[in-house]
């Protein structure tokens, strides 16, 4: 991993570097670039979106990515997927890649070679509640009331402002990470919890079984899933 990763190299497998791993500077820079690109792309085309999961948690804690997080998370509305697909050429012209292979989460990758990416989770609304499908979880596991988007307010991440559910602390405490969301926990600490570990294993197994992830993707998604959980 000396010299760091580029668009032309494979993504750094930093989550496999030992129990005290952190994301290397090259990956942080790529994630920042993807964060800014994706936000400006969606904003320019009037596609509603918001920070969620680990990216939102990092913004709330100290305005930076969590040191061991492996991707960026945005929520969008499922009804806007066709509008997003129409931007594929624009994404390609920026030398990125819009990956639409997985119906549960679309991604904007750094390149076809380097899988560093932004996750775009498509939410659907049912009776005033936003829900997503995710392997191993009930549909309402991550659900939250629409009012958090209706009252969305900006949060800062690396000095730029991004849309976020509001009130932010209530959202993170009640619908994401619990009242101790300010206390950092590494993915392996979370995965050790009896309640979560079987679900993470099932998540990876289902994706591999259905051909939605390579072995490398499965390892990355296991780290990302644990990070999403806290």
**Rounded to an integer, what's the Rg over CA atoms?**
17 Å
Helix coverage percent of residues?
25-40%
In the CATH hierarchy, what is the class?
A: Alpha Beta
What is the distance, rounded to the nearest whole angstrom, between the alpha carbons of the first and last residues?
27 Å
Could you state the order of secondary-structure elements as H and E? HEHEHHEEEEEHEEHHHH
Class from secondary-structure proportions: alpha+beta
Shape: globular
Our count of domains comes out at 1
Strand count, sense and barrel status of the largest sheet are: 7 strands, mixed
% residues in beta strands: 15-25%
CATH architect. name: 2-Layer Sandwich
Annotation, overall tally of beta strands? 9
Q: Tell me, rounded to a whole number, the average pLDDT.
A: 84
CATH fold name, please? Beta Polymerase, domain 2
Number of helices: 9
- Low-pLDDT stretches are 192-197, 206-223
Main attributes of the structure:
single chain, 230 residues, alpha+beta, Beta Polymerase, domain 2, seven-stranded mixed sheet, two-stranded antiparallel sheet, 9 helices, globular
Quick structural summary:
This protein has 230 residues and is an alpha+beta fold. The chain is built from 9 helices and 9 strands.
Structure overview:
The chain has 230 residues and is an alpha+beta fold. It has one domain (14-184): Beta Polymerase, domain 2 (2-Layer Sandwich). The chain has helices at 25-44, 53-62, 81-85, 88-93, 147-150, 168-175, 187-191, 197-209, 215-228; strands at 49-51, 72-77, 97-99, 106-109, 117-126, 129-131, 144-145, 153-157, 160-164. Strands 1, 2, 3, 4, 5, 6 and 7 form a seven-stranded mixed β-sheet that branches. It has a two-stranded antiparallel sheet with strand order 8-9. A hairpin with a 6-residue loop joins strand 3 (97-99) and strand 4. The longest helix is centred in the first third of the chain and has 20 residues, at 25-44.
